[in-house]
Write a structure and sequence with these properties.
The protein is an alpha+beta fold and 188 residues long. The chain is built from eight helices and eight strands.
Protein backbone atom coordinates (compact mmCIF):
# COMPACT_ATOMS: atom_id res chain seq x y z
CA UNK A 1 0.00 0.00 0.00
CA UNK A 2 1.29 3.46 -0.89
CA UNK A 3 0.46 6.35 1.38
CA UNK A 4 1.67 9.84 2.15
CA UNK A 5 2.35 11.19 5.62
CA UNK A 6 2.25 14.83 6.59
CA UNK A 7 3.58 15.60 10.07
CA UNK A 8 1.93 18.57 11.77
CA UNK A 9 3.11 19.82 15.16
CA UNK A 10 0.99 21.89 17.46
CA UNK A 11 1.42 25.64 17.64
CA UNK A 12 1.58 27.22 21.08
CA UNK A 13 0.28 30.60 22.18
CA UNK A 14 2.47 32.78 24.42
CA UNK A 15 0.31 31.85 27.44
CA UNK A 16 0.67 28.13 26.64
CA UNK A 17 4.45 28.60 26.35
CA UNK A 18 4.42 30.28 29.77
CA UNK A 19 2.58 27.27 31.20
CA UNK A 20 4.72 24.61 29.47
CA UNK A 21 8.18 26.19 29.35
CA UNK A 22 7.93 28.40 32.42
CA UNK A 23 8.93 31.42 30.32
CA UNK A 24 6.67 34.36 31.13
CA UNK A 25 5.08 36.32 28.30
CA UNK A 26 7.20 39.33 29.32
CA UNK A 27 10.39 37.26 29.02
CA UNK A 28 9.18 35.91 25.65
CA UNK A 29 8.76 39.52 24.44
CA UNK A 30 12.24 40.39 25.70
CA UNK A 31 13.79 37.36 23.97
CA UNK A 32 11.93 38.22 20.72
CA UNK A 33 13.11 41.83 20.95
CA UNK A 34 16.71 40.63 21.46
CA UNK A 35 16.42 38.18 18.56
CA UNK A 36 16.87 35.12 20.75
CA UNK A 37 13.55 33.59 19.66
CA UNK A 38 11.31 34.16 16.69
CA UNK A 39 7.54 34.12 17.01
CA UNK A 40 5.37 32.96 14.13
CA UNK A 41 3.58 36.19 13.46
CA UNK A 42 0.39 36.53 11.50
CA UNK A 43 -1.00 39.15 13.83
CA UNK A 44 -0.63 36.84 16.83
CA UNK A 45 2.56 35.30 18.09
CA UNK A 46 2.65 31.52 17.88
CA UNK A 47 5.49 29.14 18.60
CA UNK A 48 6.14 25.70 17.21
CA UNK A 49 7.19 22.66 19.22
CA UNK A 50 10.91 23.20 18.64
CA UNK A 51 10.57 26.78 19.98
CA UNK A 52 8.89 25.46 23.14
CA UNK A 53 11.62 22.88 23.68
CA UNK A 54 14.35 25.47 23.14
CA UNK A 55 12.73 27.99 25.51
CA UNK A 56 12.32 25.32 28.20
CA UNK A 57 15.99 24.39 27.94
CA UNK A 58 17.13 28.03 27.74
CA UNK A 59 15.21 28.81 30.91
CA UNK A 60 16.81 25.84 32.72
CA UNK A 61 20.31 26.73 31.53
CA UNK A 62 20.02 30.46 32.33
CA UNK A 63 18.68 29.66 35.79
CA UNK A 64 21.80 27.51 36.24
CA UNK A 65 24.08 30.46 35.52
CA UNK A 66 24.76 29.92 31.82
CA UNK A 67 24.76 33.06 29.70
CA UNK A 68 21.66 33.53 27.53
CA UNK A 69 23.67 33.49 24.30
CA UNK A 70 25.28 30.17 25.28
CA UNK A 71 21.94 28.75 26.46
CA UNK A 72 20.40 29.71 23.12
CA UNK A 73 23.18 27.97 21.19
CA UNK A 74 22.94 24.83 23.34
CA UNK A 75 19.14 24.61 23.47
CA UNK A 76 18.93 23.09 20.02
CA UNK A 77 20.70 19.95 21.29
CA UNK A 78 17.49 18.76 22.95
CA UNK A 79 15.04 19.42 20.11
CA UNK A 80 15.37 16.25 18.04
CA UNK A 81 15.58 13.77 20.94
CA UNK A 82 12.53 15.34 22.65
CA UNK A 83 10.46 15.38 19.46
CA UNK A 84 11.53 11.76 18.80
CA UNK A 85 10.22 10.75 22.24
CA UNK A 86 6.96 12.66 21.82
CA UNK A 87 6.40 11.16 18.37
CA UNK A 88 6.33 7.63 19.80
CA UNK A 89 3.61 8.12 22.43
CA UNK A 90 -0.04 7.42 21.62
CA UNK A 91 -1.55 10.38 23.47
CA UNK A 92 0.92 12.98 22.20
CA UNK A 93 1.13 11.79 18.58
CA UNK A 94 -2.05 10.77 16.78
CA UNK A 95 -2.97 9.54 13.31
CA UNK A 96 -5.65 11.32 11.25
CA UNK A 97 -7.05 10.42 7.86
CA UNK A 98 -6.87 7.03 6.21
CA UNK A 99 -6.25 3.99 8.41
CA UNK A 100 -2.98 2.10 8.65
CA UNK A 101 -2.10 -1.12 10.42
CA UNK A 102 -0.04 -1.12 13.63
CA UNK A 103 3.21 -2.06 11.86
CA UNK A 104 2.87 0.88 9.47
CA UNK A 105 2.09 3.29 12.32
CA UNK A 106 5.10 2.02 14.31
CA UNK A 107 7.35 2.50 11.29
CA UNK A 108 6.12 6.08 10.88
CA UNK A 109 6.58 6.84 14.57
CA UNK A 110 10.08 5.36 14.56
CA UNK A 111 11.17 7.17 11.42
CA UNK A 112 9.48 10.52 11.91
CA UNK A 113 12.54 12.25 13.35
CA UNK A 114 15.93 12.00 11.69
CA UNK A 115 19.17 12.87 13.46
CA UNK A 116 18.13 11.81 16.94
CA UNK A 117 19.54 8.70 18.53
CA UNK A 118 17.46 6.94 21.15
CA UNK A 119 20.76 6.44 22.99
CA UNK A 120 21.25 10.19 23.50
CA UNK A 121 19.14 10.53 26.60
CA UNK A 122 20.73 13.70 27.96
CA UNK A 123 22.12 17.06 26.88
CA UNK A 124 25.04 17.86 29.15
CA UNK A 125 27.00 21.11 29.64
CA UNK A 126 30.12 21.19 31.81
CA UNK A 127 30.49 24.32 33.96
CA UNK A 128 32.17 26.72 34.06
CA UNK A 129 32.60 27.41 30.38
CA UNK A 130 36.16 26.87 29.13
CA UNK A 131 37.61 30.10 27.70
CA UNK A 132 34.07 31.41 27.24
CA UNK A 133 33.09 28.35 25.19
CA UNK A 134 30.80 25.64 26.49
CA UNK A 135 31.81 22.00 26.54
CA UNK A 136 28.60 20.21 25.66
CA UNK A 137 27.34 16.96 24.20
CA UNK A 138 24.34 14.70 23.86
CA UNK A 139 25.16 11.63 25.93
CA UNK A 140 23.55 8.30 26.80
CA UNK A 141 24.54 8.19 30.48
CA UNK A 142 25.69 10.57 33.17
CA UNK A 143 29.08 8.88 33.53
CA UNK A 144 29.96 10.39 30.16
CA UNK A 145 29.04 13.77 31.61
CA UNK A 146 31.56 13.19 34.38
CA UNK A 147 34.18 12.43 31.72
CA UNK A 148 33.42 15.74 29.99
CA UNK A 149 33.74 17.57 33.29
CA UNK A 150 37.09 15.87 33.92
CA UNK A 151 38.40 16.92 30.51
CA UNK A 152 37.26 20.47 31.19
CA UNK A 153 38.48 20.41 34.81
CA UNK A 154 34.97 21.40 35.87
CA UNK A 155 33.37 20.45 39.14
CA UNK A 156 29.76 20.61 38.06
CA UNK A 157 27.53 20.67 35.04
CA UNK A 158 23.97 21.05 33.83
CA UNK A 159 22.02 18.14 32.42
CA UNK A 160 18.77 18.09 30.47
CA UNK A 161 16.97 14.75 30.52
CA UNK A 162 15.36 14.51 27.08
CA UNK A 163 12.88 11.86 28.15
CA UNK A 164 11.92 13.81 31.28
CA UNK A 165 11.53 17.00 29.25
CA UNK A 166 9.30 15.17 26.75
CA UNK A 167 7.14 13.92 29.63
CA UNK A 168 6.93 17.42 31.09
CA UNK A 169 5.81 18.85 27.74
CA UNK A 170 3.28 16.03 27.25
CA UNK A 171 1.87 16.53 30.75
CA UNK A 172 1.55 20.33 30.53
CA UNK A 173 0.50 20.80 26.88
CA UNK A 174 -2.89 20.48 25.31
CA UNK A 175 -2.87 17.19 23.41
CA UNK A 176 -2.20 16.02 20.79
CA UNK A 177 1.15 17.67 20.11
CA UNK A 178 1.96 15.84 16.88
CA UNK A 179 -0.46 14.71 14.17
CA UNK A 180 0.35 12.34 11.35
CA UNK A 181 -2.03 13.10 8.48
CA UNK A 182 -2.34 9.93 6.38
CA UNK A 183 -3.56 9.70 2.80
CA UNK A 184 -3.60 6.29 1.12
CA UNK A 185 -2.50 6.61 -2.51
CA UNK A 186 -3.26 3.04 -3.62
CA UNK A 187 -1.88 -0.46 -3.59
CA UNK A 188 1.66 -1.37 -4.73
Amino acid sequence: MKYSVKIVTREFSPSEVAMVAGVSTALQRDWRRRGVIQGRSDGWNKYDLSDVIKMTVMRAFTQSGIALETAEALSGMAVLPVIAALSRWDDTAVFDGDELNQEQMDRIRGGAVRGASEDDQFSFVALPEKDGNPVAARIDNLAKGEQLMGQNKSFHGVTVDHYGLAHHIANTSPLPIIRYEIEVKGDD
